[in-house]
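queue> pop job 88
queue> type: inverse folding (structure -> sequence)
queue> payload:
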C-alpha cells in the first residue's frame, strides 16, 4: 500500500495527494510517465529510465520539472518514505494546470510532478515465471507515436481487460501487416525453432523498453544470437519459446498464445536463463535508507 506520495514539492499522505482539476494530464492525457523496478531497496536502471523520460518530454515539448539530480532524490526519498524494498516507483510529469484549451498554456506554466512507490510481490511474480503466462492477440488501435511513454493508455487498458476476460495475463498487439508490435504493457520476444532470439526493431510503433535494452546487454554478454525484426502471429505461435520484458516482470515466459501452446507449453530454458541473469546486468542505484 502506498502511504506517501510526492506532489509538486510536497510529500503528502496518500489520501491527500491531489492535483488540480484542470491539470492537462487529467484532461488531455498531456503527460508522460516512468515505472522503475525497486529490487532489494535499489532502483533498477534508473539512468536509462530518466534518459527515456527526458526524451518523452522533449518530444511533447514539456519542460523537465527539475534537474536530474533532484529528480533522483525525489524518487529515492519516495521509496524510502514508503519503506519499499521490492516493488516499483512511479513518476509522472504533465504539462501542468491551466484553463482547459487545446492550445499549449504559457511556457512559464510549471509542470505537474507526481511520484509514488509501492511494494510488490516478488515471490508471486517468481512463481508465475515458473509456470509462464498466456497472451492473446488483438489489433493495435493505438496512436502512431508509441515510442513516447505517455499516460494515454486507454487502448492498453481495454486490451488488458480483454486478456483478463479470456483468462490471459497480457495482450500482444498486431499491426495492419499481421506483425506483433508489442504487449499492452511489455515488449514481445520469441525464440525461433532454430534458436534465434527475435524482438521487433525500434520505431514509433513501439516503446523503447528499458528492460528490453538491459536484456540486450545480457544477451550480448552471453554471446547469444539476436535479430531485431518484425515477426508475425503465425511465427510467434510456431516459436520454440516466447517471453515478455517489462520493468515489473523483468523477463516473463509466455507459454500460450490465443489458446495454442508455445513449444511444450511450459517456460523454455533460454527464457528462464535470461530471467535469472537479468539483475546481474541491470544497473542498480544507490539503495534508499529506511
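queue> result:
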Amino acid at each position: 500500500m502506498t502511504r506517501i506520495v510526492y506532489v509538486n514539492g510536497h510529500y503528502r499522505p496518500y489520501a491527500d495527494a491531489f492535483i488540480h482539476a484542470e491539470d492537462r494530464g487529467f484532461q488531455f492525457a498531456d503527460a508522460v510517465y516512468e515505472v522503475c523496478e525497486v529490487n532489494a531497496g535499489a532502483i533498477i536502471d534508473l539512468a536509462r529510465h530518466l534518459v527515456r523520460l527526458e526524451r518523452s518530454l522533449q518530444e511533447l515539448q514539456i519542460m523537465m520539472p527539475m534537474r536530474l539530480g533532484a529528480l533522483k532524490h525525489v524518487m529515492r526519498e519516495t521509496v524510502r518514505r514508503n519503506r519499499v524494498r521490492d516493488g516499483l516507483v512511479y513518476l509522472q510529469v504533465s504539462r501542468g494546470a491551466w484553463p482547459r484549451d487545446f492550445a499549449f498554456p504559457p511556457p512559464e506554466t510549471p509542470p505537474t510532478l507526481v511520484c509514488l512507490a509501492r511494494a510488490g510481490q516478488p515471490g508471486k511474480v517468481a512463481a508465475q515465471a515458473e509456470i509462464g503466462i498466456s497472451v492473446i492477440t488483438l489489433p493495435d488501435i493505438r496512436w502512431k507515436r508509441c515510442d513516447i511513454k505517455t499516460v494515454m493508455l486507454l487502448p492498453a487498458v481495454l486490451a488488458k481487460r480483454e486478456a483478463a476476460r479470456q483468462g490471459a495475463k497480457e495482450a500482444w498487439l498486431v499491426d495492419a501487416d499481421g506483425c506483433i508490435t508489442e504487449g499492452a504493457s511489455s515488449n514481445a520476444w520469441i525464440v525461433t525453432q532454430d534458436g534465434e532470439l527475435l524482438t521487433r526493431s525500434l520505431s514509433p510503433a513501439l516503446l523503447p523498453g528499458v528492460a528490453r535494452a538491459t536484456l540486450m546487454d545480457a544477451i550480448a554478454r552471453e554471446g547469444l544470437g539476436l535479430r531485431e525484426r518484425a515477426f508475425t502471429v503465425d511465427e510467434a505461435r510456431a516459436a520454440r519459446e516466447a517471453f515478455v520484458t517489462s520493468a515489473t516482470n523483468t523477463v516473463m515466459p509466455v507459454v500460450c498464445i490465443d489458446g495454442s501452446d508455445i513449444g511444450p507449453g511450459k517456460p523454455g530454458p533460454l527464457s528462464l536463463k535470461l530471467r535469472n541473469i537479468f539483475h546481474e546486468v541491470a544497473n542498480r542505484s544507490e539503495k534508499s535508507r529506511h
